[in-house]
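Archive entry. Fields below.
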Amino acid sequence: MHILLTGAAGMIGRKLTARLVKNGELNGQPIERLTLTDIVAPEKPAGFFGKVETIAADMPAPGIGQKLVAHRPDTIFHLAGVVSAEAELEFEKGYRVNLDGTRALLDAVRAIGDGYRPRVIYTSSCAVFGAPFPLAIPDEFHLTPLTSYGTQKAMCELLLADYTRRGILDGVGLRLPAICVRPGKPNKAASGFFSGIIREPLAGKEALLPVPEATLHTHASPRAAASYLIHAAGLTREQLGARINLTMPGVCCTVAEQIEALRRIAGDAVTARIRREPDELVARIVAGWPHRFDARRALALGFRPEKTFDEIIRIHIEEDLGGKIAA
Amino acid sequence: MHILLTGAAGMIGRKLTARLVKNGELNGQPIERLTLTDIVAPEKPAGFFGKVETIAADMPAPGIGQKLVAHRPDTIFHLAGVVSAEAELEFEKGYRVNLDGTRALLDAVRAIGDGYRPRVIYTSSCAVFGAPFPLAIPDEFHLTPLTSYGTQKAMCELLLADYTRRGILDGVGLRLPAICVRPGKPNKAASGFFSGIIREPLAGKEALLPVPEATLHTHASPRAAASYLIHAAGLTREQLGARINLTMPGVCCTVAEQIEALRRIAGDAVTARIRREPDELVARIVAGWPHRFDARRALALGFRPEKTFDEIIRIHIEEDLGGKIAA
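PREDICTED_STRUCTURE:
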């Protein structure tokens, strides 16, 4: 099994790499080779005994797609892309990386053309949906994104489905919910506080809460995201049918419920580090996002979300804090 | 008012040009200039006293988009594209013309960038929908096309919506139903018989019917298509809202009802020229198409379909046969 992973230096890319290395196999086949790429060269994973190649590459640049698939990876996890805020601020860069980069990769697979037909797992996003929403967004809700990022993701979902239908590759697209708890530093993304109000207090720091506590959102841990990607790699074409782009499930809860979960796990002293500082702009942006998904198809196909937000916090403490909380 | 029309040499392009020239105005503004383009140079329309430029152009080729919008058309009717069967047979050509060509045009508008913001009317297609279908496809049915053509149209709908949201242009996409009666010679499109069984008998020729008479389909005349495009040019942004891609209404009827309408208008001798010759492949292809639309938004926005299939036949006799039927 040879696996190509794009966006390997990103947060989910690193978690997925670690999981693949730890598992040593995918779909029951030993992993013999990893090709890891990103705009900067990803780190070589420790403890992997197969062949590893790390490539710093700008995916839409001429010849890069061909270079990445030259050794015919059996499975391609395509995670590379610029994030939502960046795609909104930098119009051309967003289309170039998120649309043209994906197309370059798919066309490089097509160019081989001698029956080579890898499984391609594409990370899409719930940003493909746009308000107004029903109470819970069903699997067959139409795609009317309200950001350039969501537009690019929806366009790539369509490409992936057409390339799959034509037998060029064997695709599956996963619309990931918001990932929580994101490790690392606070960032300026409007969604940053969903992780911030958990991560910062657990590290002994103050966190700002810009939205009302009644704000509803759907979350999945980085571990769940990696599990989803691995599970998707094992689905058969018969299971997927013609509609290969799937909304992933998550834990839907209010900010108040997030804070209560944090209190149960870490106590009042930790939740006291959350400071309410209403920000109307952030509140308005967040109100326009999808809150809740009725991800029946994914559940029927065996994708397993966390059961509670407590579980999401515990995964963060275990994976990113070495089990330790700042009292 | 300066109008740019791409795909101007095609059937709908020619009908639309004739209508614009006859009307002499669009949205109450006199038409002073027409720029007509297609892969072959369109004919100069007779009886137009403004400035006309006809351009033979390959839209996705470098510099062509810029050339087409250099004189800042106020309204752009973007009809150019390769048809469904061709896009399916010629993968690269389909994506190049239908996706890259449209993107080149939109990006040329964007490149002007000094507040220029034309109304862009894009001809999409009901091929953006893919089976399984409900009995009638609602406005908000999700886009899961089952052809490369439908994929390209759906991708361009997304682009148009994003460019509109960002204020680069003022777009509206129309998903046209099957156009009937198509004038001209029989073609090899699987849908060709829907027009053929009307057009050929009226011209004194035999027509083959490859599908059961119970086959249901939705039709609009070429005249209705031109009316839809003109009506779309006059809609306001407030009327359209964020969801700018609209399913157009049509006359939904069975093949048996088409034939009965022909009998009412032209008599038994004409309908006797239809020969049943079942073709399982065609029947299977047609069965996978959308049959019926619940096009509420378009109706509420004032798009007016024909009321009966009889009306569609009479328009063909009037526009394409000079009022004469072969007895």
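CURATOR_NOTE: Chain B has 13 helices and 16 strands.
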